[in-house]
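Input chain follows. Return structure tokens only.
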Amino acid sequence: MNENLDRRLNAYRADLADIRLEGQVKAERYTGGVPAQVAVPIADLRPRPDQDCGIDTQALYGEALTVFDRAGGWAWVQLAADGYVGYVREDSIRDGEAQATHVVSVPRSFVYPGPDLRFPHRHCLSMGSRVRVTGAAETRATPYALLDDGSAMIATHLRPVGDIAPDDAVSIAARFLETPYLWGGRSGFGIDCSGLVQMALAMTGKPAPRDSDQQATQLGVAIDPERDRLQRGDLVFWKGHVGFLEDAQTLLHASGGTMSVTREPLQQAIDRIGKLYALPTGYRRP
């Protein structure tokens, strides 16, 4: 039995485990889980069913997941996009296969009760959120997408699921400039360093793992900054941190130093972070 599997990516407890792990981990019983999807703008994913513990990551509206257990108002789930395992509030999800047709392609966008921007908005969705479009309308020359629940969004803020963003990942990351830093955040309302990298790459059709230690070993290929000459799109890693290069001298990252998505000279970042922690641990070209 392999009891050392990464618990971030493998659903197993002493009493219950993902049926796909049968024979690898010991549990009282195994289950295949049931499909569900996120039913709120943002669902915080926690390592324990405890509202007072910090979040590991977030799931966005319309994203698919598998529910393995429900108890005490919490659901133990695994996200479909990156395989992350954790606990979300049970009232933040709904059962059933996700049937999204479109994805939000701007950092933030409002949802209205009908096709008119003068209506009081219902809520706001982050880039990466998934919705089901069932129709179209136009009001005062503004095109709207009509959603399956009768609400509406600005049509130009959406693109079909599977379509690739015309911008590169760095350009997408730059659209989050000044977004507040949030540990475990993965949305246009608050984001952390690896969440920014994951979001930007995903919107260009390149799935990425969630955490910086995973990204540091799985994304692209390792490069030598002197031999390979740093360029736009390269990733710089520190222990527990990651950022994009806008060019060979400029770092774009979600920074705990400024508590926002920011850009700064790469050497300045290396010097500043080095005083607190250490020098970069590696560079990769995704």
